[in-house]
Design brief:
By secondary structure, this protein is of the alpha/beta class. The protein folds into two domains: 263 residues, no CATH class; 119 residues. The protein has 21 helices and six strands.
Length: 491
């Protein structure tokens, strides 16, 4: 009987891991890489010093690109290989959520929390992208798990030093800070909670030990802080609008159910459900004499979006994917108060039904820019003297990734390189477009113009005006997320 119980206990987490892996491998390469993914691959293909240099002109620190650099050295640069890193980070996030929930609550609640993270459409979506967000979520969960282990031991007066937990915290903290800047909010949440918990327990000496651990975690990031300050002033994301109440509601709906633009009824239902379930979680923690632990979950769940919202009133940075790191905290707040078997079963069933529309969108709708299909089409229909011209020029990374034979490729701004970054250049004028395209059109009989976020460098549409005034529009093939036009020289 004891062996059977032990096997049963192991089966749950193992099944969750297998389910998480399966859900993240389904349709992994159905959509090709979009431009940000192609940029990740291109940056990771540079030398290590150049990756660091390229990150200085990128809105993100170099940690993910360096990790992808090593990953692709082993597995190659195919679509499947470059996305597999995020797949594994997503699967490990499910395991990490299980471990964290098991420390804070009980086995049954831990399985439900892991199931919700396993099935989250938003987390599955970014576990299938060659970007840093799946790694960000993983670092957030593991750092919090290590913090809970360390601080709980401090608060309970356990003097034995947990070397593995301290090393894990410091290492994951450094990796997280060099992965994505929003990781700072997780460190802030953990530290506010730790200070409150240790102060209430009057563990003043342990606060000192905890502070030393924070110094060991944060100081290695100090060399990057001047670059972060420069980036915060230099980069203006004109394509990101100023957020409002609707933006927040859309973000919450996406994070919980994987659906944007929700109906009013869905929003009200989610809000009411969230308040009730979070109240149950706080009540359960209070009953277990751990009410202060709710501070950790609330700050972790709310701070990233709240701070981004207020910052975006003057410097827009409010994007749904930045808040993926809050999903485990939201899940724990929602399920932490469910204790008996029936409530856990009903919660799992309701959540599974609720995310089905989001999973349907994820697996069966085309969601990414169709660079793979476009480049294949161009290679099939191009002539030897054709020019592929991309606006913004940063899209060249996607063209180069899929291009299987030599073609002339250029773009605006013309001096684009990964070491200069996509924010280097000046907006078009009639004169500089006339000078550039007159020279290029003299060498190429046909021009494939590919545009996405075209207004960033060309708000007055000088590129299309010049081409329509000097060449003949032959074709406008349709590809998702891209404006494609083929121009041919006039006789």
């Amino acid at each position: 009987m004891r062996n059977r119980a032990r096997l049963t206990g192991l089966a749950g987490p193992q099944i969750l891991i297998l389910a998480a892996l399966s859900l993240r491998l389904i349709s992994l390469t159905r959509n090709g890489l979009w431009v940000d993914e192609a940029s990740s691959v291109a940056v990771s293909a540079l030398t290590v010093p150049d990756i660091v240099a390229a990150s200085k002109v990128d809105p993100h620190p170099p940690g993910y690109y360096l990790l992808l650099h090593g990953w692709t050295a082993l597995l190659g640069r195919s679509e499947y290989a470059v996305r597999l890193l995020s797949v594994f980070a997503g699967v490990l996030s499910v395991a990490g959520t299980y471990l964290l929930a098991k420390v804070m609550f009980r086995e049954r609640t831990a399985r439900l929390a892991a199931w919700c993270v396993c099935l989250s459409p938003a987390l599955i979506e970014y576990a299938q992208e060659t970007r840093m967000y799946a790694l960000l979520v993983l670092c957030s969960v593991i750092l919090t798990w290590a913090a809970v282990r360390i601080v709980t031991r401090y608060a309970n007066g356990i003097t034995r030093f947990s070397r593995s937990a301290h090393l894990t915290y410091a290492l994951v903290g450094v990796i997280g800070l060099y992965t994505q800047y929003y990781f700072m909010f997780v460190i802030l949440a953990v530290n506010l909670w730790a200070f409150v918990k240790l102060s209430r327990a009057e563990r003043w000496r342990d606060i000192g030990y905890w502070s030393l651990l924070q110094a060991a975690t944060i100081l290695p990031f100090g060399v990057w802080v001047p670059i972060l300050l420069h980036q915060s002033q230099a980069f203006v994301f004109t394509w990101i609008g100023q957020p409002n109440a609707t933006s927040v509601l859309n973000a919450l709906s996406y994070l919980t159910l994987g659906q944007g633009n929700p109906s009013l009824g869905l929003v009200l239902g989610l809000a009411l459900t969230g308040v009730v379930l979070s109240g149950l979680t706080v009540a359960r923690l209070a009953r277990d004499m751990q009410a202060v632990d709710a501070v950790l979950l609330v700050i972790w769940a709310i701070f990233p979006m709240a701070c981004s919202y207020f910052l975006s009133q003057s410097h827009p940075v409010f994007i749904d994917r930045q808040f993926l790191l809050s999903i485990p905290a939201i899940v724990l707040l929602m399920v932490g108060g469910l204790t008996d078997r029936r409530a856990v079963t009903i919660g799992a069933l309701v959540f599974t039904i609720g995310v089905l529309p989001g999973l349907n969108r994820l697996y069966f709708e085309n969601r990414k820019q169709e660079w793979r299909e476009l480049v294949s089409y161009i290679q099939t229909h191009s002539e030897p003297t054709d020019l592929v011209y991309v606006n913004p020029a940063g899209g060249r990374v996607a063209v180069d990734y899929y291009l299987e034979r030599s073609m002339a490729v250029d773009g605006y701004p013309p001096q684009f390189s990964l070491l200069l970054g996509g924010f280097h250049g000046e907006r078009t004028t009639a004169d500089n477009v006339n000078r550039l395209l007159t020279q290029l059109a003299g060498k190429h009989h046909r021009v494939w113009l590919i545009q996405f976020v075209a207004s960033y460098w060309d708000p007055e549409q000088h590129l299309t005006r010049w081409l329509e005034g000097h060449m003949t529009l032959e074709e406008t093939p349709t590809f998702r997320g891209l404006d494609v036009r083929l121009y041919e020289a006039r006789p």
